[in-house]
Design goal:
This is Homoserine kinase. One of its GO terms (molecular function) is ATP binding. Pfam families: GHMP_kinases_C (PF08544), GHMP_kinases_N (PF00288). By secondary structure, the protein is an alpha+beta fold. It folds into 2 domains: about 5-170, Ribosomal Protein S5, domain 2; about 180-305, GHMP kinase, C-terminal domain (Alpha-Beta Plaits), CATH 3.30.70.890. Helices cover about 35% and strands about 20% of the residues. The protein has 10 helices and 14 strands. It has helices spanning about 65-80, 105-120, 125-140, 150-155, 190-195, 205-225, 225-230, 240, 250-260, 280-295; strands at about 5-10, 10-15, 25, 30, 35-45, 50, 90-95, 160, 170, 180-185, 265, 275, 300-305, 315. Strands 6-7-5-1-14 form a 5-stranded mixed beta sheet. Strands 4-13-10-12-11 form a 5-stranded antiparallel beta sheet, with helices on one face. Helix 1 links the parallel strand 6 and strand 7 (about 90-95). Helix 1 packs parallel to helix 2. The longest helix is centred in the C-terminal third of the chain and has 20 residues, at about 205-225. It is globular, with a radius of gyration of 19 Å. The chain starts with a strand and ends with a strand. The relative contact order is 0.19.
Length: about 325
């Protein structure tokens, strides 16, 4: 056991348009900005949680309602159940991601917390065991267990959920030259509310399109066929309904596609949007336009990102 352990977990894109609840990708700004939450744990006489960072004020003041507290409780219960030694910890959450942003904000806190806890206690739990815990805690916030944010946040890269207990997810190849222009508008969209707006059933033609697109996309990634991969990146499940929650979405899509973007979509539940670009210059141009035209207030921001191979990272104390 260590005296102090620190973990950083990156932002992520859930769904990636065509993969509702089964596809996700980690994000890393090319300018070196740390776009993700940080959790510190250290030995203490009793549990305590301190919250800091630019979006700390958006969280409930009561530490008992914070998802990191729930992660701690869940982890300790699992340790006790399986006979692993524990001791009380003081935890600090550096909340760097906005809440309800579509950037996997809750997943980032959850992944950083579980990784820091597991590393602190000398890794009693394996990858899939931790992913199951992460999914359960994510489900407490969103209303259903899904891994399209926690998996890429934890493991990095682009991940496809298997629907099995093990492996929970598999890694997909990446288009090495793709850049991702992302823009958070500054407003908040509740994940549960964004799920409630969706129809309870999917029409057969849409279900067939969804399956075909996902199959073609995975094939195209393995074949390194950029044009084919981009051609199927349309969301037939959620975007037709969720875009009504995002002011300026249609205009942002139109501008991005007219200026060469390969694809454009909603990151997770929104309001963050992303444009897939062929090169960094194009991504910077589109990100600048989104920053000036899609952003709604001073909380918003834009970045040019790549998909990193690494997910959660342990940092030096």
């Amino acid at each position: 056991m260590k005296n102090k352990t620190i973990a950083y977990a990156p932002a992520s894109i859930g769904n990636v348009s065509l993969g509702f609840d089964v596809l996700g990708a980690a994000l890393e700004p090319v300018d070196g900005t740390a776009l993700g939450d940080v959790v510190e744990v250290q030995q203490a006489d009793a549990f305590a949680l301190h919250v800091a960072g630019p979006f700390a004020h958006k969280l409930p003041a009561d530490e008992n309602t914070n998802i990191v507290t729930h992660c701690y409780e869940h982890f300790i219960e699992a340790c006790v159940k399986y006979g692993h030694a524990t001791h009380p910890l003081a935890m600090t959450l550096h909340k760097n991601l906005p809440i309800g942003s579509g950037l996997g904000s809750s997943a980032s806190s959850i992944v950083a917390a579980f990784h820091a806890l597991n590393a602190h206690f000398d890794s009693p739990f394996k990858q899939d065991e931790l992913l199951h815990m992460m999914g359960e805690l994510e489900g407490q916030i969103s209303g259903s267990i899904h891994y399209d944010n926690v998996a890429p946040c934890y493991l990095g890269g682009m991940t496809l959920m298997t629907g099995q207990s093990s492996p929970v997810t598999v890694a997909l190849p990446l288009m090495e030259n793709w850049y991702w222009a992302i823009c958070y508008s500054g407003i908040s969209v509740s994940t549960s509310a964004a799920r409630d707006i969706l129809p309870k059933t999917v029409d057969l033609p849409d279900a067939l399109t969804f399956g075909r697109q996902l199959g073609v996309f995975v094939h195209a990634l393995y074949a390194n066929n950029e044009q084919l991969a981009a051609s199927v990146m349309q969301d037939v499940i959620a975007e037709p309904y969720r875009k009504s929650l995002l002011p300026g979405f249609d205009e942002a899509r139109a501008y991005s596609m007219e200026h060469g973007a390969l694809a454009f979509g909603i990151s997770g539940s929104g309001p963050t949007v992303f444009a897939v670009c062929r090169d960094q210059a194009q991504a910077q141009h589109i990100a600048a336009w989104l920053d000036n035209n899609y952003k709604q207030n001073e909380d918003g921001f834009s970045h040019v990102c790549r998909i990193p191979q690494a997910g959660v990272q342990q940092q030096q104390g």
